[in-house]
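Section 5.1 Outputs to date
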Amino acid sequence: MCSDWASTPVCTFLAAMPTTRRSSRNKSAASTIPAASASAAKLCAPKKPTVPKAPRAKATKAKSAPTAPASNVPPVSSLLNDSQQTTDEWYKSSRTKKGYTIYVKSGKKWLVGWTAKGRLDDEISADTFDNITAETPLALRALTVYKCEHLERGFASAEGLRSAFKDYFERQGDFWKCNAHTKKWEGNPVFECGFKSYYESLKNRQNRTGTATQALPMLPADLKLILEYLDSEEAIKYFILTQRLYFKTFVTMAFTLWTRNDELINLQFKGY
């Protein structure tokens, strides 16, 4: 009977419990020993010697290039001459300088001739364009009036005179005033109030009364003159019949297309 009870599952479970408990204890103890020995090994292990770092090299500034000796430096006068030479050569084109020179020379020649004949005031001397005085802008205005009013030149003459003399007196400044200390007039005479007002008046007259012929349209009267010329004896003398008929066809067709240019520019290929 006892042997039969011992063989039951309950008896077997009770008999196995102490063994399982002991085995779990032994297993946990066995697992903690290696961990303790590993930490002890870490504590007892000798430390690696620390290698000292090499000190950083101090940054040094780049040495400046040695300056040229004072004996090789050109004098100030030589440097100014070089700058003047470059300015004269490249500040204005040769064509512009040539045109300005012609305007200035002709203006000086006119001034000498008119002062010699006593046509200008005695205060305006022949060298007014060489030595700036209060009369310099008056002489310049008289020269412009002579060109544009007496000779009936266009505004281009006034514009050329102003540009030339402005460049001629440019190094005097871009102003015109009387120096209170020296009691002399200084600056560029083209900025004098009287000359400036007259120049602007010429410009306004040109803009209001001048005709821009390049912008005028061709009128029927112009077409009639062309066709009459093609039938004239002079045209028959210089052009053969084929050339005259060809040009008549060309000019009439061009005139027709121009008068109907609104329809022409709206033409679309799909409509044909």
